[in-house]
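User: Continuing from earlier, I have the next pair ready.

Assistant: Great, send them over.

User: Here they are, in order.

Assistant: Folding the first of the pair now:
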Amino acid sequence: MAGVRKPVVEVRRSQRRRRTVSAYRDGERVVVLIPDQFSRAEESEWVDRMLARLAAREGRLARSDDELLVRATRLIKLYLPEHGAQAVPASVRWVTNQNGRWGSCTPADGTIRLSHRVQDMPDWVIDYVLLHELAHLIVPSHNARFWALVGRYPKTERARGYLEGVAAAAGTALAD
């Protein structure tokens, strides 16, 4: 297949490792850890298997801007149905320039941006951050009406706690 580059693979054999095989990405290369007693054929088989597993896992984690719009549409139908077109964003996208907040919304032009740092978080956390920003299309401030809209999401408190924990672990205080 033209255009598909196989990553550089480093195989590390371990005398202590008996049955388990694992792999992880280290920059541009993939490190595969295998038992020392594996034959070259077993090594080759396991390298291929672990590359496939990594690719599948990374494929699940790769979330696109298009997927965000689909997700936003679903959240509007579930939690903001009476707001119709007012809650529909002009655009929703991932950005890499937001390190002080999880997401942002510009109600004037209907744009929503989510920090790339949220991309690998659980779906229910992404849904919370996205619904939070969608609610800003209806209520620009963080007043009681805004929090009532966000509170329709059943995992609001759980997601806020998750985000607070991530921020605390990173040693940052992030804005709502």
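And the other member of the pair:
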Amino acid sequence: MSDAALVRRCLAGDPAAARELVEQFQQDVYGLCARLLGHRQDAEDVAQEVFLRVFRSLRRWDAGRPLRPWVLGITVNRCRTALGRRAKGPELADYLHETADHRSGDDSAELTREIRGAVDGLRPDYQTVFVLFHEQGRSYEEIADVVARPVGTVKTWLHRARVEILDRLRSRGLVPDDPTNANTPAQPG
């Protein structure tokens, strides 16, 4: 079924269509929320907010454009709002268990933690495009639709995110400096 037909059914009050819309996007929405927010309960709450916002805003969706980038755009905006609320208040005690040291003898686990930490430390725009591209496999064009920026901006942000992550890994001694190339990784094409 086309996006437009599904939206028309939702707007007509068809409960099966509403369920179908949620089922179609819930994995992407929750996955993006979990990655950007870093906390399961926050991700669940924000994912619910996303679908409430989607259903309230369906009449404004442009039927000439794909539905997925529009839904993911709402997701990114809701995550930004949640992060802004979190930044204004003190960290809650239930986040403390997530900061516990979970060291293992496996170097790849340490590298994975460092990469996640580096991604989490990126500015929100860079983090969003990095997660959408590398973790969710979205195309440049789809990401551009989600973040409402030109493809060139998305590529630049992605490049800068990679450079910042690489710099952090180098500063932590996890990636050796490359003496043959003082430049940063090549900009994606």
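Worth noting for the second one:
The longest helix spans residues 15-37. The helical segments are 3-11, 15-37, 40-57, 67-88, 107-120, 124-135, 140-147, 151-171.
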